[in-house]
Recover the amino acids of this structure.
């Protein structure tokens, strides 16, 4: 997955770090802190006197928007712009002490869809910036299809979101466009609503913004709104995604960046984290997503494409209620890596019996491999069987294997022999059997 | 270009991925290609010049190069680059190849090239009319002609899936893992594929479905096409557009995998980086429906794919649009092969008669063959038969250096050893062991430094300054007694021969200007016989059109000193036989001739 969302605080920090490179004629105070609770905010006052001296704004920094409509932006105690440090501390402590409901979409001010419930763990705190409505602007950039698109508007905040088509100027750029072509096009297309006196400054800011978006490898970057008061810029609200495949080139530029899980998403289980760590260390590919750990069908499928096809087929023939996981191992993992992966699945799978007393099904599937040595990877699975045989027998598991590729005859023979020796139920098929047919067979019984 | 690859397609492989290259050569051998499909390997960090691979039961050597440009210069006909660099370098390697030019397609295997770089790279390739396959792909295949790396898997699977000869389906998939599977299904339900491409799993890949399908539309071997797409992206809609525009008229079978994605929110990524539905249009279901509506053959589920392939194929076959395929005869790759420990490229004693570089010994041995010892040297040492003037020069050198009297260190050593009662070989070796930087070694040194100075266009003055800085006396310059006025006649005759018979002698001419400058300082600093031989060897090789790199290899290998070793062995053996004939007693050096200055060893 190449495009990953980052926190607003990190997005601002990246821009601040490179501010003079992209916005040499503008100033940005970069007065912002991220805290997890009130006492962290108190500690942060050391060296950042503005936290004590200025009126504050606080809001959660957890990848979701519509914070105002969810009543999760603290900007007034009695009246706007009067939030003191102590008020901010108590508000953060209050909001982070118990689960909060957040709606992700609204129709006007009425929430639509279901709310997600989760703890608020990260807050961003900044000075309250008094400004006039007409000093607010909008700008964003992203990739659409093969091109970059820049969106500009004279108005920021809710106004732009609710009247997108009328208020936003959209510019599309080819990847091959030169710096000069880009600048020229932006200058020629500054939104009409921007007052004449500010057009040049806006264009200059937009050119720098779009260059930062490209050169710093953002895949999405939005400031809504930013405030432009002469040469002074304030970034009130930002949303950003990075192209994480560029991470190896951007170590310096991005600094220490974290990709948080979305609010309301279940935290990653230790098993998933363990697989991710193993994946990061190997040239092979190990992926695991837990969909419904109490379900009865588990898949251990080799190959990205094949894993999708198995998931499709299980959804078609059994329904997603029965599908416990999704994942794949591929790219020639070692015997040890395959064993590790298989043991994590077997561990999860043998924790509980099926609620309805049925036998569980393990699909060890895969297409015809290009270069992965089937016998070698199956040796890893066999070793995992040996360690988990007792538990597998206790829970009741039927194993269905289908695989082809280098050394598949030996792999199939070995796994059948091992399962028989351990008293496990197993059916084994090679490339003559249609790749997903074992799903049908498993469900037919 | 209607066909991606032909039976003559040759590739440069970036990164010495031995298994993948071996798979390609096994494929070549199996389908009886005339020439191997991999002709050069770019291995920037390897110190080796070549690597060995099996070609059927035998072994072949594939040259290794440090850079793509070197490989391309050596194998200009190779117009496919198989870029197996990591995600960190794959972009640079591709861009470099695009700038070098002469590639018609570039395959990139790395997964996770930064998106902005991948987009730029893909566009640049497009502007240069180069087909990019990947990134994040296992490659492509034109059955019976050319196969990239690991695609198709093992040779057994290739034959089983009928990927060893052209069928009639054009196959395009995103997934590389499923490519084999679909090939297998097509071989079971139809007659195999005519061309297949796995376009790659990254979000931004070079050639997309439509690029490949349009090429296949123009390829007469392709009678129908199969597209295996994935949830995410809108590339399938371009195919639909092309059908509506009448650009694609051959029957198309298609299926998008990832129908399950609709059950989960966007947090779950099914499949590749490119596989994530950003809106309804991009779901597998919508794409399958849209394609079905456009007249594409879309099965009800992946499980039904075999039936629909069979139906389309048999329909075309019944209409006579697809003819029965002939099964070609195949070579069988041996199950067990052993790599050879030694390599020989100069002679071969197998068969009726031993050969020197392709010449039976009887065809070079006797005078009537017209071969002299110089001819034999040229073919055994340099694997080429030299023209007469060069052969004569080699012999002149041998004759010139054959002996220089009994007092030189080598001859003296040989004589002392022979007088100790040792045999010819021991005595000869004792003599030869003195040959080195101080005795005979000046030939190599002269060749090396004069060539360097000449290559760098140093004036004689600059050359002298350079050698002074290096702190080395100029090799090949200086004689104990000879001078300009009292020239060394051996040198004079070598120079005369060269002037008369060499096509040109630029390095000698240069050396003589150097000689002029130094002799003005000291009379006896003349170009000596070692220097003349070394310098003329370079002139000879240049006249014979050797490249500078090849000449440097000769110098580094010590080929120049070899002339001295061989020539002087004649003289040494003469001295040894002389001693045996004279039956001289054991030699003991006179104590009067030794300065004794021995102190008691200090105790520590």
């Amino acid at each position: 997955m190449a495009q990953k969302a980052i926190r607003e605080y990190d997005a601002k920090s990246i821009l601040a770090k490179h501010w003079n490179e992209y916005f040499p004629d503008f100033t940005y105070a970069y007065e912002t802190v991220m805290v997890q609770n009130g006492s962290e905010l108190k500690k942060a006052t050391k060296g950042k006197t503005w936290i004590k001296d200025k009126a504050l704004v606080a809001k959660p920094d957890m990848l979701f928007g519509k914070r105002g409509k969810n009543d999760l932006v603290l900007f007034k105690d009695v009246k706007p712009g009067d939030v003191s440090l102590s008020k901010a501390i108590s508000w953060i402590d209050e909001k982070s002490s118990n689960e909060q409901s957040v709606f992700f979409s609204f129709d006007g001010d009425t929430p639509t869809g279901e709310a997600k419930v989760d703890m608020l763990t990260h807050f961003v705190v900044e000075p309250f910036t008094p400004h006039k409505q007409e000093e607010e602007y909008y700008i964003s950039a992203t990739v659409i299809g093969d091109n970059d698109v820049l969106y500009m508007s004279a108005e920021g905040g809710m106004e732009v979101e609710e009247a997108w088509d009328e208020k936003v100027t959209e510019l599309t750029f080819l990847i091959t466009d030169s710096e000069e072509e880009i600048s020229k096009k932006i200058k020629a297309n500054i939104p009409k609503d921007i007052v004449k006196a500010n057009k040049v400054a806006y264009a200059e800011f937009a050119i720098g913004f779009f260059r930062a978006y490209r050169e710093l490898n953002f895949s999405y970057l939005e400031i809504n709104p930013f405030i432009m008061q002469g040469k002074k810029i304030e970034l009130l609200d930002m949303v950003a995604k990075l192209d994480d495949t560029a991470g190896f080139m951007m170590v310096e530029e991005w600094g220490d960046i974290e990709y948080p899980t979305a609010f309301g998403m279940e935290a990653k289980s230790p098993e998933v984290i363990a697989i991710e760590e193993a994946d990061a260390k190997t040239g092979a590919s190990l992926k695991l997503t837990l969909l419904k750990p109490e379900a009865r069908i588990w898949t251990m499928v080799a190959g990205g494409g094949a894993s999708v096809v198995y998931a499709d087929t299980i959804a078609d023939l059994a329904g997603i209620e029965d599908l416990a996981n999704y994942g794949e191992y591929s790219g020639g993992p070692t015997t040890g890596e395959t064993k590790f992966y298989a043991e994590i699945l077997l561990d999860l799978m043998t924790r509980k019996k099926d609620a309805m007393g049925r036998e569980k099904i393990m699909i060890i599937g895969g297409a015809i491999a290009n270069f992965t040595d089937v016998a070698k990877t199956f040796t890893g699975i066999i070793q995992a069987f040996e360690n988990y045989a007792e538990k597998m027998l206790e829970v009741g598991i039927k194993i269905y294997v289908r695989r082809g590729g280098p050394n598949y005859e030996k792999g199939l023979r070995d796994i059948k022999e091992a399962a028989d020796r351990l008293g496990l139920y197993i059916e084994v098929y090679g490339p003559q059997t249609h790749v997903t047919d074992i799903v049908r067979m498993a469900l037919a019984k | 270009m209607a066909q991606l690859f032909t039976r003559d397609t040759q590739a440069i492989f970036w990164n010495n991925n031995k298994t993948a290259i071996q798979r390609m050569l096994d494929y070549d051998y199996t389908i009886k290609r005339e020439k191997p499909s991999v002709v050069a390997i770019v291995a920037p960090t390897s110190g080796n010049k070549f690597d060995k691979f099996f070609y059927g039961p035998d072994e072949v050597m594939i040259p290794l190069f440090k850079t793509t440009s070197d490989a391309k210069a050596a194998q200009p006909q190779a117009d496919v680059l198989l870029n197996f660099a990591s995600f960190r370098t794959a972009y640079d390697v591709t861009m470099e190849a695009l700038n070098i030019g002469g590639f018609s397609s570039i395959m990139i295997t790395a997964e996770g090239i930064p998106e902005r770089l991948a987009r730029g790279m893909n566009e640049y390739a497009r502007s240069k009319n180069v087909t990019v396959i990947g990134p994040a792909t296992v490659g492509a295949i034109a059955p019976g002609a050319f196969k990239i790396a690991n695609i198709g898997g093992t040779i057994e699977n290739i034959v089983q899936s009928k990927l060893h000869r052209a069928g009639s389906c054009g196959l395009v998939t995103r997934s590389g893992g499923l490519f084999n599977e679909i090939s297998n299904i097509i071989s079971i339900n139809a007659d195999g594929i005519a061309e297949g491409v796995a376009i790659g799993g990254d979000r931004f890949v070079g050639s997309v479905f439509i690029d490949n399908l349009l090429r296949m539309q123009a390829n007469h071997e392709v009678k129908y096409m199969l597209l295996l797409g994935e949830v995410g992206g809108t590339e399938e809609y371009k195919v639909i557009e092309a059908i509506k525009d009448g650009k694609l008229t051959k029957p198309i079978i298609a299926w998008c995998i990832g129908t399950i994605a609709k059950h989960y929110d966007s947090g779950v990524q099914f499949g590749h980086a490119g596989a994530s539905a950003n809106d309804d249009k991009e779901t597998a279901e919508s794409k399958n429906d849209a394609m079905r509506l456009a007249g594409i053959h879309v099965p009800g589920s992946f499980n039904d794919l075999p039936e629909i392939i069979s139906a389309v194929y048999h329909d075309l076959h019944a209409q006579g649009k697809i003819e029965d395929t002939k099964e070609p005869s195949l070579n069988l790759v041996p199950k067990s092969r052993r790599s050879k420990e030694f390599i020989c490229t100069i002679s071969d004693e197998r068969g009726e008669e031993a050969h020197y570089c392709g010449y039976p010994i009887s065809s070079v041995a006797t005078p009537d063959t017209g071969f002299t010892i110089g001819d034999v040297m040229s073919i055994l040492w340099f694997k080429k038969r030299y023209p007469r003037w060069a052969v004569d020069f080699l012999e002149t050198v041998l004759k010139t250096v054959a002996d220089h009297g009994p007092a030189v260190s080598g001859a003296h050593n040989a004589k002392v050893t022979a007088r100790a009662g040792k045999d010819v070989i021991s005595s000869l070796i004792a003599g030869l062991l003195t040959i080195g930087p101080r005795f005979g070694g000046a030939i190599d040194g002269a060749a090396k430094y004069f060539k360097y100075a000449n290559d760098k266009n140093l004036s004689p003055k600059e050359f002298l300054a350079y050698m002074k800085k290096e702190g080395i006396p100029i090799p090949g310059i200086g004689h104990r007694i000879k001078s300009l006025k009292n020239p060394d006649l051996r040198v004079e005759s070598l120079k005369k021969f060269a002037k008369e018979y060499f096509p040109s002698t630029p390095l000698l001419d240069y050396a003589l200007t150097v000689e002029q400058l130094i002799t003005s300082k000291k009379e006896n600093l003349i170009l000596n016989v070692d220097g003349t031989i070394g310098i003329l060897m370079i002139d000879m090789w240049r006249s014979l059109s050797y490249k500078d790199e090849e000449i440097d290899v000769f110098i580094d290998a010590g080929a120049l000193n070899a002339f001295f070793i061989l020539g002087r062995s004649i003289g040494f053996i003469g001295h040894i036989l002389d001693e045996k004939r004279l039956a001289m007693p054991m030699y003991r050096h006179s104590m009067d001739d030794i300065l004794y200055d021995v102190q008691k060893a200090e105790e520590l």
